[in-house]
Design a protein that fits this description.
Blueprint lengths: L1 H17 L4 H24 L3 H6 L1 E9 L5 E4 H17 L3 E13 L3 E13 L6 E13 L5 E10 L9 H4 L4 E3 L2
Parallel strand pairs: 1-6
Antiparallel strand pairs: 1-2, 3-4, 3-7, 4-5, 5-6
Length: about 180
């Protein structure tokens, strides 16, 4: 077992070194992910467009959230949850917007791991804006049609004041995608 673990770690290091990208290659890939995942994600959420939102995720996506006692969805279960959630928000007339601040972006030719903070803003017809801050870790991968899609989506919010994430933390991120 000890040797198996060592071999796996050695293999991961070797593969990691084999995939070193130039600065230009890295920037090109991040631009593709921003264009094919992050900006459409923000637009779909703002427009309450469930079809566009779901298309950003691979069919085999894993979604985990530490909110509500912790929950993990996969594939079809996640898409069913999305439909219910988007319908609920639409029925209540809730407008939403999300912004992302990146803390770490790890890039290979076919997989990108993005970690950071988000600022989720929502309001209904009868209320002013409310803000929720949280942490995220998204892994995107080039899939069958050579487009980037989300394969893993994890987040946790600060709705209960446990993690003490706020505007001051959000603004410390190294790069942003804003509406």
């Amino acid at each position: 077992m000890k040797y198996r673990l060592f071999f796996m770690m050695l293999l991961m290091v070797t593969l990691g070194q084999a995939q070193k990208l130039s600065k230009t290659e890295r920037e090109t890939i991040l631009n593709q992910v921003d264009t094919q995942v992050w900006r459409p994600f923000m637009k779909a959420l703002a427009n309450n467009d469930i079809a566009a939102y779901d298309k950003l995720h691979a069919a085999f996506v894993l979604r985990a959230s530490s909110d509500l006692g912790g929950k993990v969805w996969s594939g079809k279960d996640y898409f069913v949850y999305n439909k219910t959630n988007f319908s609920r928000l639409q029925d209540k007339g809730i407008q939403q917007k999300i912004e992302f601040g990146f803390v770490e972006r790890v890039v290979s030719e076919t997989v990108v791991s993005d970690m950071g903070l988000y600022k989720y803003t929502y309001h209904s017809k009868n209320s002013g804006p409310k803000y929720i801050y949280g942490k995220f870790h998204i892994i995107s991968q080039k899939v069958d049609d050579a487009r980037w899609k989300i394969i893993l989506d994890y987040d946790r919010t600060d709705q209960e004041g446990i993690y003490e994430i706020g505007e001051h933390d959000f603004e410390k991120a190294s790069s942003f995608i804003r509406a």
